[in-house]
Amino acid sequence: MIIKVPNGADTSSVHLTEVLHSPEIGYTLVSIGCINDAGCTATFGQGLCTIMNTDGSVMGQIPKNEQGLYKVVHNLTTGNANAASEKLTVLELHHWMGHITPSAACQLVTNGLMAGLSLIDSDNNPTVFCKACVAVKMKHHPIAKERKGEPANTYGGEVHSDLWGPAPLQLLGGCRYYISYIDDKTCETVLYLLHEKSETFETYKKYEAWVKNHCSATIKTLHTNHGGKNLSDEFTAHLEGQGTTQILTVHNTPQHNGVAEWLNGVLADKVQVMLHDSQLPHYLWGEAINHTVWLKNHTSTKALDGRTPYEAMHGTPPNLAGLLIWGANVWVHNPDMSKLEDQACLGC
Known about the structure:
10 helices; single chain; three-stranded antiparallel β-sheet
């Protein structure tokens, strides 16, 4: 390490060895003992600390300040700072500063918030392309939480669908999946339990036939995610043959199928609550989810200005007289009992 010490009207360069680096200390301490060990001498007198080399020549004279310390103060001039500044491009400065935004990196220099660095005059455009930032920081655009566009004006005008599963627990009948269909005009939901994903196409044809026979309608648009179950040649050919337009979400963005994805969350919450409240075994989740869908179709919704999907479908409000809590105990008639035995038992 080389330090500058005053020596009369001039300064001398002193080469220090075996220097210890301590970032917490904001100044350099020179040990008089180490100076003596190096063969040099240090004398104090007349307000000066005089350091002499091994040959007796004076290396430096440090005056004592008002606090009684022999301290060397180096004054940095603006010219020296500018001379020592390093010129960088905006992209280089962006890398140096840990990939902060290029505009923020430029402001550090142009607003005088840092010293020792300057920008190349010809490169004052803060818009730069950094491959590392693109690879690591890329995010998809935020997905709108509210619907864009007009809703369908006929039953089957647009149907939202999604396949859910596999469930962690298999039903008594062996099903581990379900597929839902939500009509956009009435918000009516129809749900089918499935054993495997491969049943998706056949199940859709069942729903298509139900819409035709019960609602006297055809499915004009089917909105699904980009899953492979919806992209088979057989499925696509069938939709084309029926004149049904298929709308697929962008790859890896199921949020774009918002209506069906929202339904999955609602069904999951309600099924968990009903199973917990009834204390029934979890392998009855299929029965619970079918009851949840029935209740949803008989519950008012904001999308229909407070009406129920049942009323939007049939024109009259639903009659819920006699509705029981799911999982409630009921008396079950047993026709095999004799005339002297109980004809019913309490079950659930």
